[in-house]
Design a protein that fits this description.
Number of domains: 1
Helix content: under 10%
Distance between the termini: 26 Å
CATH topology: Acetoacetate decarboxylase-like
Shape: globular
Order of helices and strands: EEEEEEHHEEEEEEEEEEE
CATH architecture: Beta Barrel
Structural class: mainly beta
Largest sheet: 15 strands, mixed
Radius of gyration: 16 Å
CATH class: Mainly Beta
Length: about 210
């Protein structure tokens, strides 16, 4: 069956329960053995077939009882309430890993490692990401709040900026690493402070990262 061509480009904020750096980025086991995370994306430019996605936002919360690759996780998709019915359908297909080569995007990988995908929510999503300062937030009122800031040097208190590049990543080519705080009142409970976060400019298609 032919795949519908799609592309999204724009900033992403993600934060999880791991220590700064997130061992998963280096093919190591998560800090406490589990993975609990939230993510938000603003689509500056995007399409799914002929459906334009420019200016829309999406978010998700997710949790796994062990490392992501061991499966048995759950995920809560959240789609911008401003999206038209066609745009909602398009975004949910992208987020669920449809029209995507196996292993090509983090959407496809994460969903394939989940036993449960909660009923999608259509909500107002506030999003702000400053890659230079690492200040950012993703806010879905009543569902999830993510805040990021620069990691601080424990001696001087000055911002400590670290950037990581992945030659064969399925989420980003490079990302700024930051300190994240997450609180979720949705179906997937999250409550972390001063844990790993990253901010990246995504550019992905159903074939993977555009380099």
């Amino acid at each position: 069956m032919a795949h519908t061509d799609w592309m999204i480009r724009g900033p992403e904020i993600a934060s999880c329960n791991c220590s700064y750096g997130c061992p998963c980025q280096f093919n190591a086991l998560p800090t406490d053995g589990t993975c609990r995370a939230a993510v938000g994306i603003q689509i500056d430019k995007g399409h799914y077939g002929k459906v334009k996605l420019d200016g829309l936002r999406l978010a998700a919360t997710a949790a796994w009882p062990g490392p992501i690759h061991m499966g048995h996780g759950e995920i809560q998709p959240i789609v911008d309430e401003r999206a038209t019915p066609e745009q909602r359908e398009a975004l949910l297909k992208i987020m669920s890993g449809q029209d995507t080569e196996p292993g090509a995007t983090f959407f496809q990988v994460f969903v394939s490692m989940c036993d449960k995908v909660h009923t999608p929510m259509f909500k107002k999503i506030d999003f702000k990401a400053d890659m230079k300062s690492c200040d950012g937030h993703v806010s879905v009122p009543g569902v999830v709040e993510v805040k990021t800031e620069a990691i601080r040097n424990p001696v001087t208190g000055q911002p400590h900026h670290a950037k990581v590049s992945l030659r064969q990543g399925f989420e980003y080519a490079e990302a700024e690493y930051a300190s994240g705080t997450v609180k979720s009142a949705g179906p997937i409970a999250l409550n972390t402070a001063g844990k790993h976060a990253h901010m990246a400019m995504l550019h992905i298609t159903g074939r993977g990262i555009v380099r």
